[in-house]
Amino acid sequence: MSLHSWKDFRLYVITGENYHTGRSLVDVMEQTLLGGADMVQLRAKDLSKREVLAQAYTLRKLTDRYNVPLIINDYLDVALAVQADGVHLGQDDLPLKEARRILGPAAIIGISTHHIDQALDAERDGADYIGVGPVYPTGTKAGRKAVTTDYVREVAKQVKIPWVAIGGITLGNVGEVIAAGASRVCAVSAIVGSEHVAETCRSFRTALTGQQGAG
Ligand code: 3NM
Predict the structure, then answer these.
(1) Would you list which residues are annotated within the binding site?
(2) Which residues form the signal peptide (predicted)?
């Protein structure tokens, strides 16, 4: 048995190729792992299923090398095909109970939540972790109203399962998110769109742990 549980994750990075400016998916994501990302999600809303599958195989190989869990956004079939560690589902995706029935008890299933009622429902229904956001307005999920750090504070008080703050989080505001009670954060643009991806991850980890990140 491993000393570390996936539940100990601190820095969750989601892919966002629109922010890469010419760099390859595998290069950018390897930089996040070198900088200490300890959970990775493949999220590719604009690609065909075949393209997502190809990326998923690539990221499976990469994350295996770093012993980091790979989560697939939305697509259970892709997660099963590449033996990902789990899936992340939004409020309008396949219901948690159906996903659990298909994937089984060992799969990590994460649920996006935007209100405390959704958070408590997901916890009761057996989610393994929840996303809490968007804390700040973000172009990555445009059109969704920011829940602010008030929601982070509420989740910190009431939710027992692992949860991760997400949405518009940057090195400039992560301190405020941590002060609201978050011990895990997730980001796309602030990380994969940054010039020095590994260094950015190390700075996030330092903020979260008070220590230097891995690598
Ligand atoms: N989910 P960035 S916010 C993918 O609140 C996603 O459920 C959110 O990207 C939620 O770090 C979000 O660039 C976008 O803001 C995160």
Answers:
(1) 41-45, 73-74, 93, 112, 138-141, 168, 188-189
(2) none
Return the active site residues. 43, 112, 141
Bridge partners, residue 145, by sequence: none
Question: In a structure prediction context, what are the per-residue pLDDT tens digits for the chain, which is 215 residues long?
Answer: 456 799 999 999 999 999 998 899 999 999 999 999 999 999 999 999 999 999 999 999 999 999 999 999 999 999 999 999 999 999 999 999 999 999 999 999 999 999 999 999 999 999 999 999 999 999 999 889 999 999 999 999 999 999 999 999 999 999 999 999 999 999 999 999 999 999 999 999 999 998 654 44
Closest-lying ligand 1 atom to the alpha carbon of residue 133: 5
In the reported structure, the alpha carbon of residue 1 is separated from the centroid of ligand 1 by a whole-number distance in angstroms of: 32
CB atoms within 10 A of CB 176: 14
pTM of the model: 0.96
Measure the CA–CA gap between 27 and 6, rounded to whole angstroms: 23
Q: Which of 66, 38, 71 is nearest to 56 (CA)?
A: 71
